[in-house]
Amino acid sequence: MADTATRLNEDLKNAMRAKDGMALNTLRAVKSAIKNAAIEKGGSDTELEEGEVIAVIRKQIKQRRESMDQFNKAGREELAHKEESEINLLEDYLPSPLSTKEIDELVDATIAECNASSRSDMGRVMKILQERTAGRADGKALSQAVMKPVSYTHLRAHETLRYLVCRLLLE
Fold this sequence. Notes:
Shape: elongated
Number of helices: 7
Radius of gyration: 22 Å
Distance between the termini: 71 Å
Structural class: mainly alpha
């Protein structure tokens, strides 16, 4: 069983002993989501790998963030606060996120490796980056980091082309 799943089970037992209702309900929901993902993958006896467990936890966090936004819009601060508490609890199970500098370094290396020079290459770069970051970086942050150099490279290529065309016209 994955380390995170084992830790979840231990924390669930501790929450039962401590009679911590919020932690207990949150961890039960996550454990249920992990079990459902395992059943979808290959049946009730299937166990998820560490990366898959982390992906389920990320999905649970995302769902709670969306709920929190909806509660805030509806003026239900107490429910939004509850969702925020659950998010904080679940974030403890995620691996430490990559820093902006680490993301930029990975992006630069991947773009160079793929020889990406335009937006059309972004999909290839993103696929490799998501495999390499293994859930340690948000997809939106990765996308924004990829767009900067790819757009700049595309712009440089476009300016170079414009320069060459002007030179040809002047000759």
